[in-house]
């Protein structure tokens, strides 16, 4: 059952990586058109959105079959899969650091699947209620609220927009998201396989927590992506999110209860390999630029020409002719001085 959940998570993350590249490819195609249509009228863009929904559904279903501490770290497959699909869809270069990062991520995934907590835990409404009022979770929630309020004060009142503050706020919300997603998905799975659980109020409480935490999580994540490069946001967010999800799984669902010390060490080493793999794949990716095409106008009488006129990245036109006024001004200035 755990292996089935792990496969759902891996396939879901790979489908998400493909969907992101399809959406980006559709934007590039529309930008090359003389009269581009709105992106939401593109069939290709909608196919990417549909694949995104399929991938997220696979991730959601995975929480119903596998522990949180197994599903959450497998998000590294979305980043590494995106590096492969970008070569096919966007014609990007596959670097040596990409190959090394993907190798480390796959090795980390193998360790995670084999050494994640092997517990069989039916997530019923009664078990969620039991964990929800447990002293471990209550202490954990109180500490989370305190840290969240302190960081929110520095962010809103003091105007501190450091990436660590923003992504820590995202991670604190993500821990509630992971707990509620596991509860909702687990209760749906339990309802299908055994007994109906959707009549319990705890199901709808967890559903509301899931939606609310996702909305505010996306809000802070968008602020981080506006202020910082994706090559910085992606690995830091993956590390913070995974760490927060693992702690949430340990505290709320007690997934490492009774686990051997060697198993925990190898599991953490697998997490470290996946973190390092994500960092290598995303490192310096935005600093690479594809060679821009140029227009060769040839010789035009009365115009001072360059051999190759590069596209103007700041304007709407593809290329611009150099204005000879500056050169004539400088020449006239030199004559006056003489």
TrEMBL record:
Region span, Disordered: 309-338
Principal subcellular localisation of the protein: membrane
Any GO MF annotation of the entry: magnesium ion transmembrane transporter activity
Keywords from the UniProt entry: Membrane, Transmembrane, Transmembrane helix
Pfam families, A to Z: Mg_trans_NIPA
Entry coiled-coil feature ranges: none
GO CC terms in record: membrane
Transmembrane segments: 6-22, 43-65, 71-90, 99-117, 137-154, 166-190, 202-221, 233-253, 259-281
Intracellular or extracellular location(s): Membrane
InterPro entries, A to Z: EmrE-like, Mg_trans_NIPA
Its membrane topology: Multi-pass membrane protein
Keyword Transmembrane helix: yes
Protein's UniProt keywords contain Transcription regulation: no
Family: Belongs to the NIPA family.
PANTHER family the UniProt entry points to: NIPA-LIKE PROTEIN 2, PTHR12570
Protein's recorded name: NIPA like domain containing 2
Organism, as annotated: Chinchilla lanigera
GN (gene name): NIPAL2
């Amino acid at each position: 059952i755990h292996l089935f959940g792990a496969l759902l998570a891996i396939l879901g993350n790979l489908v998400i990586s493909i969907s992101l590249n399809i959406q980006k490819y559709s934007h590039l195609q529309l930008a090359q058109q003389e009269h581009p249509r709105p992106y939401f009228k593109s069939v290709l863009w909608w196919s990417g959105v549909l694949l995104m929904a399929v991938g997220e559904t696979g991730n959601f279903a995975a929480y119903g079959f596998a522990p949180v501490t197994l599903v959450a770290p497998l998000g590294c497959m979305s980043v590494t899969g995106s590096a492969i699909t970008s070569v096919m869809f966007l014609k990007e270069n596959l670097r040596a650091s990409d190959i090394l990062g993907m190798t480390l991520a796959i090795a980390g995934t193998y360790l995670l699947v084999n050494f994640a907590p092997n517990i069989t835990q039916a997530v019923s409404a009664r078990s969620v209620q039991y964990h929800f009022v447990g002293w471990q979770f209550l202490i954990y929630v109180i500490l989370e609220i305190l840290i969240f309020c302190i960081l929110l004060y520095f962010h809103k009142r003091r105007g501190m927009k450091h990436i660590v503050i923003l992504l820590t706020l995202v991670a604190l919300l993500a821990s509630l998201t992971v707990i509620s997603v596991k509860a909702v998905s687990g209760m749906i799975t339990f309802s299908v396989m055994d007994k109906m659980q959707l009549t319990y109020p705890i199901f709808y409480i967890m559903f509301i927590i899931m939606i609310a935490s996702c909305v505010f999580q996306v809000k802070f994540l968008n602020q981080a992506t506006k202020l910082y490069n994706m090559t910085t946001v992606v690995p830091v967010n993956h590390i913070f999110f995974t760490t927060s999800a693992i702690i949430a799984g340990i505290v709320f669902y007690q997934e490492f209860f009774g686990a051997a010390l060697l198993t925990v060490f190898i599991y953490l080493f697998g997490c470290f390999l996946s973190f390092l793999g994500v960092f290598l794949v995303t490192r310096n990716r935005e600093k690479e630029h594809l060679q821009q095409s140029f227009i060769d106008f040839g010789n035009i009488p009365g115009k001072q020409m360059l051999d190759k006129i590069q596209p103007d990245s700041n304007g709407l036109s593809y290329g611009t002719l150099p204005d000879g006024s500056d050169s004539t001004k400088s020449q006239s200035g030199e004559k006056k001085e003489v």
